[in-house]
Design goal:
This is tRNA-2-methylthio-N(6)-dimethylallyladenosine synthase. It contains 15 helices and 21 strands. The chain is α/β, with parallel strands linked by helices. Helix 14 links the parallel strand 15 and strand 16. Helix 11 runs parallel beside helix 13 and helix 14 packs parallel to helix 15. The model has no long low-confidence stretch (mean pLDDT about 95). The structure holds 5'-deoxyadenosine and iron/sulfur cluster (SF4). 5'-deoxyadenosine binds next to strand 15. Iron/sulfur cluster binds next to helix 8.
Length: about 450
């Protein structure tokens, strides 16, 4: 074996959970002597951490695999692995369609990645997408020094909601929450390494029900315990379902200053008829009242959401109900997607909306959201906000950080360091970021 470390290139698709998983896979491979590279051309192993949520994301994996063919031809011992939700959903099928793939590892099995790579050295082509009985988090190596002041921490995985359009309950499986003590220990370690902001991750994170020292804990109680960690300054969580916003969690937003005033709470549609067809189990009115209660607890709460345009059966009237809901809530930001039929989901067999109609509706939703986003950014001008600085900006003497409301903020300042949390007066709003001046401590 040569002394030069082997190089691993990871491409991450999809959500923040995949970003977290990619980091943990890099750490697991680090124990086997692999270091990360941004350049697939110099890699000894390429790992695609995939997303199955919409057809486009899933198909992109196959075209990207095709693009790796010349690399494999140039370097026949290059290992190619597929991880994440496409791996989970399609397993062996990936090997059949793309014989250049050496291993396929599902989202719950990546603690086994190093031994699977060893198996490829013996000429095997392992596929592991079973839901295991052991907990991967118990078996992964400890997280190494973080260079960043922000970190993700997975507290919950899977989803039991079965929205009619969504593959997550099938790819990520049933809801499982990590025990409280493990989460607190991981958070404490992150903080001891310089992390000042933690985003708690889960496909249905506010459905968190973890084993605590005195019985079952919900997310509100977990947040309050995390807030007691000295040196941890900010807590966020994503993604939530409206029906799991408990009174205790809402109250925590009012009582816990470390819990940031930004909440991603997808509603998907503003039409009760469509919400029912989507199996969302709440009405538009219930969502609006819920946001009112959240804003009563935390008046400056910035709301964010996901919307789907062109769900099967959606009429013009249903679409207008979505636009009405967006106007009623006033989002600081939001994401919208054209409906994509996913194999195996309840909505897959239903007759869809014509593609051009769905496109037009999507554009209308996006235009309205962009307008609200711009207005929200403009309204920040003149306000004082907390900013957690992350790194120097592109311009001389410039620093970049995130505001309490998750806006990117630029300032010109001396003597800042990653992890500095300062008050900033916002002086200007651009399309993608805000500019400001440091206020005296
Ligand atoms: N088609 C379009 N968008 C979808 N999403 C989930 N499944 C689909 C689908 N089949 C969107 C939802 C979800 C976000 C992560 O992706 O809005 O909240
Ligand atoms: Fe998918 Fe979210 Fe619905 Fe769960 S709650 S099925 S993850 S859209």
């Amino acid at each position: 074996m040569s002394d030069t470390p082997k190089k691993l290139h990871i491409k991450t698709y999809g959500c923040q959970m995949n970003v977290y998983d990619s980091e943990r896979m890099a750490e697991a491979m680090g124990t086997k002597g692999y270091v990360l590279t941004d350049d697939p051309a110099e890699a000894d192993m390429v790992l695609l951490n995939t997303c199955h949520i919409r057809e486009k994301a899933a198909e992109k994996v196959y075209s990207d695999l095709g693009r790796l063919r010349p690399f494999k031809e140039a370097k026949p011992d290059l290992k190619i692995g597929v991880a994440g939700c496409v791996a989970q959903a399609e397993g062996e099928e990936i090997m059949r369609r793309m014989p250049l793939v050496d291993l396929v590892v599902g989202s719950q099995n990546y603690h086994r990645l190093p031994e699977m790579v060893a198996a490829t050295d013996r000429g095997e082509k392992p596929v592991d997408t079973e839901f295991p009985t052991e907990d991967k988090f118990d078996l992964l190596p400890e997280r190494p020094l973080s260079a960043r002041p922000t970190a993700f921490l997975t507290v919950q995985e899977g989803c039991d909601k079965f929205c009619a359009f969504c593959v997550v309950p099938y790819t990520r499986g049933a809801e499982i929450s990590r025990p409280v003590s493990r989460i607190l220990t991981e958070a404490q370690k992150l903080v001891s390494k310089g992390v000042r902001e933690i985003t708690l991750l889960g496909q249905n994170v506010n459905g968190y029900h973890g084993e605590g020292p005195d019985g079952d804990w919900g997310l509100g109680k977990l947040v309050r315990a995390l807030a007691r960690i000295d040196g941890l300054e900010r807590i966020r969580y994503t993604t939530s379902h409206p029906n799991d916003m408990t009174e205790d969690l809402i109250a925590a937003h009012g009582e816990e200053p470390k819990l940031m005033p930004y909440l991603h709470l997808p509603v998907q549609s503003g039409s009760d008829r469509i919400l029912k067809l989507m199996n969302r189990k709440h009405t538009a009115e219930e969502y609006i009242r819920l946001v009112e209660r959240i804003r009563a607890a935390r008046p400056d709460m910035m709301m964010s959401s996901d919307f789907i345009a062109g769900f099967p059966g959606e009429s013009d009237e249903d679409h207008r109900a979505s636009l009405d809901l967006i106007r009623e809530i006033g989002y600081g930001m939001a994401f919208s997607f054209k409906y994509s039929s996913r194999p195996g989901t309840p909505a897959a067999g239903r007759e869809g909306v014509p593609s051009d109609v769905a496109d037009a509706r999507l554009q209308e939703i996006q235009a309205l959201i962009t307008e609200q986003q711009r207005a929200t950014q403009q309204a920040m001008v003149g306000r004082d906000v907390g900013v957690l600085f992350e790194k120097p900006g592109r311009l001389e003497g410039q620093w970049v950080g995130k505001s309490d409301y998750l806006h990117a903020v630029h300032v010109k300042a001396e003597g800042l360091a990653p992890g500095a949390l300062r008050r900033v007066r916002i002086t200007a709003a651009g399309p993608n970021s805000l500019a400001g001046e440091l206020l005296a401590d």
